[in-house]
Design goal:
Elements (H helix, E strand, L loop, with lengths): L1 E10 L27 E5 L8 E5 L2 E5 L6 E6 L2 H7 L2 E6 L5 E6 L3 E8 L5 E6 L5 E7 L7 H4 L17 H12 L3 E5 L2 E9 L4 E8 L2 E6 L4 E6 L12 E5 L4 H4 L9 E7 L4 E6 L4 E8 L4 E9 L9 E7 L4 E6 L4 E6 L5 E7 L8 E6 L5 E6 L2 E6 L4 E4 L6 H4 L1 E8 L2 E6 L4 E9 L7 H5 L2 E3 L3 E5 L13 E3 L8 E5 L2 H6 L3 E6 L5 E6 L3 E5 L4 E4 L16 E7 L2 E8 L4 E7 L15 E6 L9 E7 L4 E6 L3 E15 L16 E16 L10 H4 L1 E6 L5 E5 L2 E8 L2 E8 L4 E6 L2 E5 L3 E6 L12 E4 L3 E5 L2 E5 L6 E6 L4 E9 L5 E9 L1 H14 L12 H8 L5 H18 L8 H12 L3 H10 L6 H8 L3 H12 L2 H23 L16 H16 L3 H14 L1 H18 L1
Length: about 1050
Amino acid sequence: MYWPTSISQVQNLPQLKPFEEIPECNNHKYDPNPHNDEIITILSNYTNGLPFVILTYRSIYVYDWTHKTPVNIHVRSNDSIDKFGKNESVKLSPNQQTFAVMTDKNHILVYTIQLTNDNEVLVIQSNNGDIYQNGYPITNYQQDDIVYGGVDSKYTEGRNVANQGIVKNFIGSFLNNNDNEVLLKDYSLRLKLVLNVASPIVEYCFINSMELMLINTAPHAFQIIQLNSKKIDTSTDNINFILADKLDWFIDSEINNSSEIVYMDYNYDLDCFLWINEQGDVLLVKHSGTVADIRITAKLVYRASMRDGNKACQVLINHFKNLCYVILETSEILIYKLQHSFSCQLLKIIGKCLPAKKVNNIYLHPHGGSFVVLYQNGWNSYSALGNLNFSTFEYDVQKITNSKSIQFLGANQMILVNNLNEIVSIDLTVCNTGDGFNSLSMKRPLLYDSDKISIFKAYEKEFIEHNHQFNEIANEENNVWLNEMIPVGFRIHNNLIRSCSVSDDGNNVCIVGNHDVVIFSNVTKKWKYLEIIQEEVSFDKVESAIQKCLWWKNFLILGTNDRKRKESKLFVFSERILEPNEGFTVDSIVWSYDFSDTPFDEHFVNFNIDLFNDTFFVFTSQFNCYTWNLKMEVSIQDKIVGDYAALFAENSSLKTIKKQIILQRSVVHQLKSCFNEHDDSVILNFGTILKVSETDLALLSNTDLFYIRKERHGNLATLINSSVEYIYKLSPSLLCLFDGSKLIHYNLSTSTNLLELKPITINTGNDLVINDGIATVNYSGVCLYPITTISNQNTMFGVEVECFNKVKLQLETNRKNYLSDLVDHYILSNIRVKNLEEDSNAINIATVYGKFSVFKNFNFVLEKLMVDYLQKCYDDSNYDKDDEYFMRLYDLIILTGKFYEIVLNCLKKTETQFWPIFFTKSKENPRDVVQKLFKEAENQKLTAHYFIIMLNYEKITSSQISNRGNKTNKKEISNKIGKKDQQLIINVLKKLILSHDFETSFELVRFLKIVDDDMTHKCLGKLKAYLNGSQ
C-alpha cells in the first residue's frame, strides 16, 4: 500500500542543439524545438532499473531510471512523419528492451535499447543523497582483465600481475568501496524495423519479448509477428494470422456478436487479455499455441445491456491478486475475481467518484496491492479491493491534479505528465503490510519512502480517549512513528525492497533489497550491511538470493531462493549482530536449513511466526508447510572464576548473559492435495499462513482465504472469503482480516472451526451496501486504510494524506475506536439466536455488558448506537418493528446505572423529530421523567435538562397532532407555561443555585427567556425574594 507524500522533481523535455548545427541532420528537414512538442504518454518498466520512455508525435525520449535523466532521444524527420505518420502510442515488451510505436498511418516502429554500453558516467552522491559529481566515462572494464587485478589489489590472487595499470586498479578499488557511487548509463536507442501493415490496426501488444500481436479490421484478424527474424516476410513462418470471423466466440451473439475491438489490456504473466468491443462488452481472451498454430479462446465477462447499457471504457488485469478491473462510462469500477477455470466472478462494485469526469486510463502498482484511475480532471488511488486511499479531488495540488499520463517507476516512485507538459516525479510512502506480509509486519507496520523509514511505536504511547469516532494523532507526545534515514548507499544500489521487518519490541529493523541486506538498531542508532563475499568479481552489484526477513525477539531470520543455482535456505543470525562492535556477517549464523535436504524438489516461498505461541511457519513451492517451535535458553556465566569468584558473586556487572535460540522441528503440513496442481498462482501470489488450532490453518493467496482443516483422510481446504487483502492474529483467539471495505474479526475463543463462526464486521468508514451478495461501495471520499489494530484498546490505526500547500503532502495517522461495532454485533447476534446455549456466536446482554463495560468509552458507544438507531427508524418506519434491537440496547443502558445521563446525551445529539420514536418505544414521556428525577432521584441538574427536553417534546407532539404531515418548525415553542411548571422551575433553580451549579442554572434561564420572557422574569423575581429572605 502506498500514499503520495511529496513532489520531488519537476522538469520539461530537454532542449536539443539546433538541427542545423548537427551534421547528421543536414540531409533531412526537421521542425525546430522538439522540446515544445506535446507529450502523448510515458511508459516505464517499474522496478528493474531499466530506462523508461516518453513519447511525442515525432520523438521518443529514453530516461535513466535512477536519476530520471534523459540519456537518449530519437527525433523523426518531416519526411518520416509524412511517410509513416505521427506517433500515437507505445507498448513495451516483457523483457523491457523493445518498444513498439504505432503511428496514425498504420505503421509500427520497433525500437530496441542496448543494455551494455561503454559510455558510462560515474555519478557520486553525498551522504544526504545530493549529487556532487557527474564524472568521467569509464573504460570497458567488463572485457579488461587489468581492471580486475592491480598492484595491492585483493583480486590479484592467481593472476598475472605484470603490466597492470595503477590508475585502472585505483578506479576498480574506488568503485567497489564507495557506496555513494552509481553508474549513469548511456543506453543506445536503435530503430530496428518498420512494419507497414496493410489492414487497419485496431490494437496491438507484445505477447512475449520477441513476438508482437496485431489485431486488425477489414478483415478482422489476429496477426503474430516474430521480431527476432532477420527477414520479415509473409512467405516465411515468422508471420501467421487467424481470421476472427472464423472463431466461434467472435461471431457468437451471446459472447461477442462480431463486434469490433475498441481497447485491450494484455497481461504477460497470465498470457491473456481483456477485450472491450464496440458494444461496450468485456471479454476475457486467452492466447495459446505457437506462431504456426495460433489458438485464441474467449469468455464473456461483462455485458453492457445487462446494466442499463453502461458501456465499459477501461479494463486492467491484476495478476498479483488474480483480479480484473472493469471501469464503466459512468465511472463505476467493477472488481472481478479471475478464476483458474478461465472465468470471472463479480466481487465488488465501487460507486462513481462524484467530482470526476471522463475516465482516461487505469494503472497498476508494481506490487499489485493498489491501482490508480486517471480521469480528465484528476486521479484516485485505490487498494486492490477498492478502498479509496488518495484522491486529488480532495486537495489543491495543481502540479499533479490534471494529468495526461501516469506511470510507476517503482514501489515508492510515481511519475506523471501534467497538462502543462511538465514531467513530475512524486515520492510515495509504502507500507510493508502490502508485500509478503506476516504477523510482525501487521503488529509493527513500517512505512518507507525514498529517504527514510518510519517504525510504528504506538504500543509505547499512552493515548487520551476522546468521545469522538476519529481523533487525529498530531502532537509530539502521541506521535506513533519513529523516523530514521535510510543509508544513501542502500538507496542508490537497490531499486527494489523485497522485504522489511521490525522486531516485536520495535527496536530492530531489517530491510532486504535486490542487492543488499541492512539492519538497524534503535539502541545503537547504527546501520549495518550484511557482508557477503562475492565468488565472482564484478563492478556491477550482484543480485541477492535473499528474499524475506523476519525477527523473533532479537534473532534475525532470512529466507533465500537462488533460482540460478536452484538453492533455497533458511538462516538464523545471532543477536550479537546488534552489538555495536560486532559485524553483520555469515559468521553470526547460528542455525540454517537447506531445502535440498528434503525429499521434495522445492524452494522457499514465505514464512511467518505465531507471536502468541512462538511457532515458526515456512511455506514452500511444493505446498509444504514446515513448522518449528521456537525457544530461547538463557545462561549466566561469571566473568571471574577461581578463588575470587565468591567475592564477586553478587555483582551483576561481572556476569555474562548468553542467549541461545532453539528450533524444535514440529509438524509438516502437506497441502498439495488441497489445491489445483495446475494453479501456479497459489504459490506465485502467496500471502501468508496462520495457525487456527493445533491441527487447522488459515492460508491466504491472491485474495482467497482458505480454511485448512485436518480430516481423517488428509487436509481439506475450504474457501472462506474471496475478497481478502490481508489477515493476521490480533490475539491468541482473534483473527482479523481486511476485505478492502471493512475489517472482519473471527473470535476463536468460542470455537476454532471457522466454518461455524459468525464474522464480526468492523466499519472503517466506507459507505457499504450489500445486495445479492455483491458489495457496493458508494462514494464518500477518501477512507483511511487500516494498517494495524491494537485489540485490547479496540482501536484501529489508519493512514491518510493531508495537503499543506501546492507541492507539499504529508501523511497523517488517524485512529478509530470500533467498540460500537462489537457491541452492535453482539446485540444482533442475540436477536438472531433464540437459544443461546445452541449457538456459541451469541451471548446474553448481561455478558455483553460485563465484557465491554470495562472500556472508558462504553457509555459513549451506547449513545452512538442509540443515535444511529433513531436515525434508521426515522428513515424506515418498518425498521425493528418488534423493538428487539431497541430493548436490548435499552437494557444495556440501564445496566450502566447512568440511564438518564446517556439518554440525555443521545437526545441532545439528534433532531427533535426523532424524540417521539424513543419515548414511544420506551413507553415513557419526558414529563414523567422530570417528575421522577425531581422527586425520587433528587437530581436537579438532570431535572433542568429534561425540563427543556419536555417543553420541546410537547411542542413537537402537539404540532404533529394538529398539523399531521407538516414539518415542525423547531423555533416555534409554546408561550404558555402552566403554574405547576412555573413552581417546578423555581424549585429547580433554588437547588441549582444553592448547590453552586450556575452553569446549568444559566442554561435553563436562557432557554426559558426564549420561551416566555415575562414568565421568566416573574420566576426570577420570586427566586430573588426567596434567596434574599433565606439570607
